[in-house]
Each structure stands twice: as C-alpha cells, then as structure tokens.
indole-3-glycerol-phosphate synthase
Amino acid sequence: MIEYNLRFPATKSMLTTLVRNSFKAIDDGMYETSGDHDYSNHSYLSMRNSILHCKQNPLLTEIKFASPSRGKLVDSKEMNVEEIAMTMENAGAIGISILAQPYLFNGSIGNILKARKYVTVPILMKDIVVSDIQIKAAKKAGADCILLIKTVFDNNMSEGGLETLAEYAKKIGLEVILETHDEIEFDDAVKINNRTIKPFSLIGINNRNLGTLEVNLDTTVRILSENSKGNNTVISESGIRGPSDIIKLKSAGADAFLIGTTLMENSKEMAHKIKELIEN
C-alpha cells in the first residue's frame, strides 16, 4: 500500500490535484487486477434499493485510511479492510464506500476485492473517476456502484463526458451516484434525471468544498431548501459526526448519509458509533 503522500504539489484548487492524481494512478497501473479474483459476473446489489428499504437511518459507511485534509486516519496494519468491512456490515451499514485512490487516500482497487469476499451489502468504489478504465476496474473488483463528481465533468477534466461514462457504468451493471456541491450542480442533476432514462441512481450532496476542503453541513440544508429533489434519492456526504447531524440532514430532506472520517478515526468505537447513528 502506498503511504500518505501528495504525489503532485498542491494547487490553488485541491480538485485539480485530485484529478491529476487519478490520471497518474491510471498511468501507474493502479487499477489493474490481473491474477486476482474477477467479479465481472457479479450481479450487482442495488445501493438505491438498500436505502429505500431501510427501516432506520440509511448509513453508507466509508473505508479510507487517509485523507487530504486529515492525513493518515488509521494504520492498515493494525486494522485491515476485511475486518473493517465486516464490522460495518454487522453494525447495520446499508452499504460500504471504499476508497480506490492510492495517492492522498492510501486507497486501492484491491481493497474492494478484499471486502467483496466478506460482505453482502452493496459496495461503492469511491474515487475521482476520470476514465472508463476506473469503471471497468470497479466492476471487475466486485463493486456495485461508482461515484461521478459533477464538478470534474463541468470543468472538462475527464477523458469522457458525464452522461457517456454514466451510461457505460449502467451498461456493465453498476449504479451511479452523481456528486454535487452547489445549487446549480444539484438542479442540473435533477433535470438530467427527469429524462426518460435516468442516468443516475442516486444524487449526492458533498458538504465538503473540493477547492478548500472545508466542510459545512448547511450545504445540504441550503441546496435542498432551494431546490426540489423530485423523485430522486439523495445522499448527504461528509462532515457527519453525531446523531444531531443526522437529524438536521434528515429534516432537510436527505434520504441517506455517508460517513467515513469519524468512524475511521475512532475505529475501536466503530460498531457502537454506527449503531448510534442508525438508531437515532
């Protein structure tokens, strides 16, 4: 595993750095899984259905060993992916998000392969997707869902267009979460999904500013108060620390909640924390 490092010098916008790191990871062969188990024929598990059928607070929990804003969160030698994934599922998570990006996040496509062998809930490959190479790798590793970041595509930072990559993902049997960050992006996402064929299974609202990395839960509250989500299922991402945050976001109209850093920083209390957030 590649330890926490900034492969490229930080730029004014962290998003530029993250995108450049994705292309570097592709060039370095980080998405190749030859010799490992091939889950290409894995019948995908629906993240959206798992959210809609959840009778408590739908919690999508995230496995990441490091982050650009916090550095190393947990030593993978002390707690491995398989152990974390099983703990999350047993505690009641409706799905598991796993970082595949090696640079800054210490992620790996191999971590998805490891978790897939041990859990029965849907898996999201969390990454800064810029190419169909990453999408193919997600399917082969056993992921059920990928995340596309609207800002990346709006700024022409990818190898393919947003809807082109979303359609490709659906074609090979993956659900798509489209991540948005402001009212304009969210409104565009809803409009695109109002068409006959919905390209996105879920719409995410990231409370983290990808330029500054600052987090504000009011991002979700503001966007949902000013925009109709229609019949879309919305996930609020980042910054969730306790039950009061879930209550706030749920009242605003969020349907599900993604939490990672809080759990990884307190890995020994992970199961308890998940149950606390789910049952609130």
The domain at 14-279 is CATH 3.20.20.70 (TIM Barrel).
